[in-house]
Amino acid sequence: MKKNTINPSKQNECIFDLLPEASPTLQTEFKKQQPIKQETSITNTQDQTDKYGFKSQKELKQKNDPKTLNARIQKWRIMIDLFDKQEKPDKKLLKNRTRKGIPDGFRNLAWPYLAGVPQAKIDSIIYLKCGKYEEFLKSQEFNFEHQIRLDVLRTFPDNVNFQDQTVLSESLVNVLKALSVAISDMGYCQGLNFLTAALIMVTNDENAFWILFRLMTKYQQAEKYKNPSSLLREFFILDCLINQYYPTTAKILKKNNIDLFYFATEWFITLFASTLPIDLFYRVFEIFLLEGEKTLFRCALAIIHFKEQKLIQLQNNFEISLRHLKSLDDFFTIDNDQFIYVMFNKFKFSWQLIQQLEEKYKKQKKK
User: Fold this and answer.
1) Which end is more exposed in the chain, N or C (fewer Cβ atoms within 10 Å of the end residue's Cβ)?
2) Are 304 and 231 within one domain?
3) Which CATH number is 268's domain given?
4) What is the rounded distance in angstroms from the CA atom of residue 215 to the CA atom of residue 64?
5) Half-sphere exposure (CA, 13 Å, Cβ side) for 154?
6) Judgement on whether residues 31 and 150 belong to the same structural domain of the protein
7) pTM for the whole structure
């Protein structure tokens, strides 16, 4: 198996060009899959855990209207059927339904399509001469296995499914090992363990691997792991956006010398997997799969939105302010829909704005 890597092309904002025009063989496994019940995929070994196995996360406030949920399930059954037939659903319709949230049991089916997994397998065959997850696990060289196993023990320490040698902890090790072989110039980096763990709590090992493979190549996320200094671009763009939307917060951060590095590194490295309640992370993540990088900046701004008032009260205390910026507690008093609403109704900037800020960053970097 070759160890060269895929040259990622420019990331698209929409997913429709990522869906393969023809590849029935690679699509077969998706057609055979059935929606899974989320509760049955996670081993809940203690009474005081949520459905994902977290001991400390409180239940997020949710609007659980059975009629709305059932209607959403029926709509996603139709959407999955379109994916299976390799038909492209209406762009606006898919965007609206994804923003409203994919029902738990359908994420296992929808995420591979949103991420373009069938195309990822084609790319892997072309560039790496390998299109099967199992083949990557047959490698004789796992240079990062020791570090991976150490980090698995630190992954979501309050989740019973990643304590000791559980089924999910071994799945986490295997997916990360396979990814380190597939993207050999990246290998393994801390932060990937949280993102991967979040995925395997919803989908199987193979889907998780290919989604990650797609994130590292088509979505160009590998660079931040290969070269952490590349995060300076994200920090610059986010800093500009905070100054635009939350000038008061920007002044507080500057006054207290709170650099974005102190709290936003984890946001971008884990794609918010370790910094949002897990249910809310899944909502943000599936939107990111469809709409691309600007989703990350909208999410970051939404976090600032819900933290600003308390931050103003704490503006003269560096340590407590920083702890507040990293805390999950603010998000247990709102429901997911409220957070998503803020993301898309308060921050209506275009992809062109992100590109303009990126160009501004490049010019400043040259000085």
Assistant:
1) C
2) yes
3) 1.10.472.80
4) 31
5) 9
6) no
7) 0.85
